[in-house]
Amino acid sequence: MPSAAASCPHAVHRRFLSACRPPPLPVGMPSTAASCRHVVHRRFLSAFSLRVSLCPLQARLAHVAAEAELSVPFADELPSRRAQLEALRSSEFDVLVVGGGATGAGCALDAVTRNLKTALVERNDFSSGTSSRSTKLIHGGVRYLQKAIMQLDYEQYMMVKEALHERANLLEIAPHLSAPLPIMLPVYKWWQLPYFWAGIKMYDLVAGVQCLKSSYVLSKSKALELFPMLKKDKLVGAIVYYDGQHNDARMNLAIALTAARYGAATANYTEVVHLLKTGDPNGGPDRVCGARCRDVITGEEFDVKAKCVINATGPFTDSLRRMDDQQTENICQPSAGVHIVIPGYYSPDNMGLLDPATSDGRVIFFLPWENMTIAGTTDTPTQVTAHPIPGEDDINFILTEVRNYLSPDVEVRRGDVLAAWSGIRPLVTDPSSKDTQSICRNHVVSISGSGLVTIAGGKWTTYRSMAEETLDAAVRAHGLRAEPCRTVGLVLEGGKGWSPTLYIRLVQDYGLEKEVAQHLASTYGVRAFDVAKMAQVTGQRWPIVGKRLVSEFPYIESEVIYAIKEYACTAIDVLARRTRLGFLNVQAADEALPRIVAIMGQELGWSQERRTLESARKFLYHEMGYRSRSEQLTRTSEINLDNQEVVRYKKRFHKFDKESKGFITTVDVQRVLESINVHIDENALHEILNEVDLNKNGQVEIDEFLQLMSAVKKGQVSDSRLAILMKTAEETLDERGPVTVDRSGGGV
Known about the structure:
Radius of gyration: 28 Å
CATH architecture of the largest domain: 2-Layer Sandwich
Number of helices: 27
Largest sheet: 10 strands, mixed
Helix content: 40-55%
Strand content: 15-25%
CATH topology of the largest domain: D-Amino Acid Oxidase, Chain A, domain 2
């Protein structure tokens, strides 16, 4: 970028103000309309001019002042779930929050830190819905700012301004769970470079002193150096800007746990059956005074009494509103957003990518996350469901858009999709609206005639300010005696005392692997030491403690035990939200599942019936994309191989099928492997063959093997251990040399 341009953001501001000036009015326009038009224009520009402050040239994190110290009743140890349920039964609360997503947990934390007696109930697990299925960004919304400027929309501008403030606060209060992330916007047309640069600079300007780092322009060569997978043809350059990224489910959990530490009675798997009401002494409508709840684990029902009930149920907002008033109209129009996870080699370790205009006008993010790459999202009207399923069409749409931006040298394969999920956005709209893409994600706080407070809409980043606005409204409507909001700068669970080098102490003090220690520090913050204390000795020279659940990921067995202290009740809670294994690799999650169930069963005293794997595997199969993944290889799959390929693969197959039976078993594979000095555990070998055994008869027929190789050729399957094993074994038999067989992420 020319130095003059970089050093003169004031010029950008002046050009923006000039560009926003309305054109001359057409002859004959009524004076009232003209006057109104210019008033709106002046109001927008005046507000913009007053609120915009320049981004500092030096990269820095925004600083948010911490609030006054509060007493923390459960600083040392969280109360058990049983104790929380007993508190719900035996107390009367000032505020009962229904919904354990980001907004509901935020409301509970806001309320309890105002010295209000607070309860929080969630019918599933904390963050089990939309809040765990986001794009993992903490952002103001570049596209919303574009709409604000193009349409002179003051409301959208203020939404972006608020979100950028909340972005800074969230990065400050949970430094272990969040961090700034550079995102590259590749440019393929010369005229787009100044256009996009001006827009991104405006994003910096709106953030003002809370700008994370200043955006900058890259030449073509520098862009390819930082993002070598990028498509080179017609690339002009790129613009890099900064937003925040976080571990969304862990962040949600941190908010809920922080509320619990401050004294809020919080319980997951506690469903509202119906609302409790009492007569109004003034002769008005009956007033909401609590809720009849049911413990989903035991089936026991009980009443939770409260002066105020807050509905923060996200996509299920209208369901609770209808419990209050069956005649009420819907205020939410749900929209489904699908994301996929592909191997980490698809993107640099610390650089995201933004596709600002896909083939159908959507925005696609392509981001590094947890050593993998996440791509999404889609935006499709949907029905509200507790178990959204990612569709194959949406998965293929995302893959197609990714291919458009990556080099032809990088083959984007369907088989590389390691996990996929769908989240339902609770967009606020007129029920007659059909187009969810044009809906602004503003939020609405409403109070019914019976006193039910509803917070609906909004976005992840602004959960705290939404909670503050909701509690302000609740305090006014119900005459609650409360102190001012204290959540700005209030550090979340594990954040106080955390530093980027904390993991080194874990390695030195406990003998953990570096990768495991880094994971624990970035997941639990200072609470990582509690997890490390529970870790079992490995019996090896190194690491000294910390048995992994699966070899490829840094999750260890003691995290399962600690998850129970964090109110995990099912194996799904551990797979999806205490760890993120289910979101990163469904096959690895399936392999870890039996051990997770065994540990939880021992800790919680589960009967054999409770130890079933069925529900967790159903979750992985439907909601995490395992079904779509497994359906890439079926009994009806076409064999798309030429004659030479068929001959070559049959020859490979017959090296294992010495008796020409037409199928191979684990015995056949084991015999060949032993002949080349390779040893694989028998259970692991059964798993390897089971991935290809389509009719589940304990053997792999020649047709099944050819279907596998055809799927590998088409990119539908890319991590078949049997394909890799048989290929390397064949090569070794020809060379008579040793070979090591590990799980591979590539094809053959």
